[in-house]
């Protein structure tokens, strides 16, 4: 087992922060991760049928689902809109239970009622569509959920903030996704509040909608690391979205140091599909 000290030292070195700050952050994260894992184990562990993960991205959560929560033989469909990202996911995770579906959430290539659980983690704020109508973007995901099945989203939220883009560097950073989507003529849902997620699930026809808030500690060195990562990503972004990317990134970089390094909390919101 790794001791906490080397991990904190490694973190401190990687992000250029004092070891004490790194140790404090990692201890807080470990406590919160434990809460999150217990809660997910409860919800996911009670499902015996197939699971659909929405907006799987490069598969960080997909890997966790398979390693930690799904049972032997339990099918996981990971839905991702972009082929390039889905391909990375396929290359990174090799597991007989996993099938990667490359598709927009408006058209899930599964029959009605195929899933016992539909779940997404830190994905919906990043969901893009032509019209920005998130309920329309998710209606087909509810179709593939079996009656009695659970629809669970958890995502970064703006609760506790007035103007989240000015009060949190992470909040400001999320605006970049909205701006990049606009460069390709799409609308990105962006950051919302827990109440918006509750309203969304109710509009989708889910019942008994419940919520749980998960605070996150501020990550030391977050802003400097983000600036570094965006700099590295710049050529790839420009290739994909064109020269408009430079104005988006430059305006962020000009403001980032003046915005507090406050982390966004996560909310879990879940409900049941009626009809069983
Ligand atoms: C923030 S990333 C996901 C992070 C991942 N869930 C995790 O926990 O590490 C959001 C992903 O959703 C995908 N996405 C966005 N809009 C989508 C849509 N309408 N349908 C399906 N996938 C979508 C994006 O391509 C992106 O890979």
Task: Explain how this protein is built.
With 276 residues, this protein is of the alpha/beta class. The protein has 2 domains: 1-46; 104-272, Rossmann fold (3-Layer(aba) Sandwich), CATH 3.40.50. It has 10 helices and 9 strands. It has a 7-stranded mixed sheet with strand order 3-2-1-4-6-9-8, sandwiched between helices. A two-stranded antiparallel sheet has the order 5-7. α9 packs antiparallel against α10. Bound molecules: S-adenosylmethionine.
Features:
276 residues, single chain, binds S-adenosylmethionine, alpha/beta, Rossmann fold, 10 helices
Set down the secondary structure blueprint.
Layout: H1 4-15, H2 19-45, E1 51-54, H3 60-69, E2 76-80, H4 83-92, E3 98-102, E4 115-121, E5 128-129, H5 134-143, E6 145-156, H6 164-167, H7 169-183, E7 187-188, H8 194-203, E8 207-214, H9 222-241, H10 244-256, E9 266-272
The structure holds S-adenosylmethionine (SAM).
């Amino acid at each position: 087992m790794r001791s906490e000290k080397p991990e904190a030292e490694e973190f401190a070195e990687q992000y250029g922060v004092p070891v004490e700050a790194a140790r404090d952050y990692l201890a807080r994260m470990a406590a919160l991760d434990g809460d999150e894992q217990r809660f997910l184990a409860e919800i996911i562990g009670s499902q015996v049928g197939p699971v659909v993960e929405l907006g799987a991205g490069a598969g960080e959560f997909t890997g966790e689902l398979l390693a930690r929560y799904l049972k032997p033989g339990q099918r996981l469909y990971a839905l991702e809109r972009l082929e390039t990202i889905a391909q990375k996911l396929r290359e990174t995770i090799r597991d007989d239970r996993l099938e990667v579906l490359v598709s927009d959430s408006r058209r899930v290539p599964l029959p009605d009622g195929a899933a016992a659980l539909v779940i997404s983690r830190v994905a919906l704020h990043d969901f893009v569509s032509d019209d920005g109508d998130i309920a329309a973007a998710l209606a087909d995901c509810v179709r593939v959920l079996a009656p009695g099945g659970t629809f669970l989203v958890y995502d970064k939220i703006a609760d506790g903030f007035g103007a989240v883009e000015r009060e949190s560097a992470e909040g400001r950073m999320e605006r970049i996704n909205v701006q990049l989507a606009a460069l390709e003529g799409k609308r990105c849902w962006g950051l919302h509040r827990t109440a918006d997620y509750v309203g969304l699930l109710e509009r989708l026809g889910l019942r008994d909608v419940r919520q749980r808030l998960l605070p996150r500690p501020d990550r030391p060195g977050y802003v400097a690391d983000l600036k570094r990562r965006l700099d590295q990503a710049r050529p790839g972004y420009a290739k994909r979205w064109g020269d408009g990317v430079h104005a988006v990134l430059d305006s962020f970089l000009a403001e980032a140091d003046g915005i507090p390094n406050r982390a966004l909390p996560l909310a879990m919101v879940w409900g049941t599909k009626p009809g069983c």
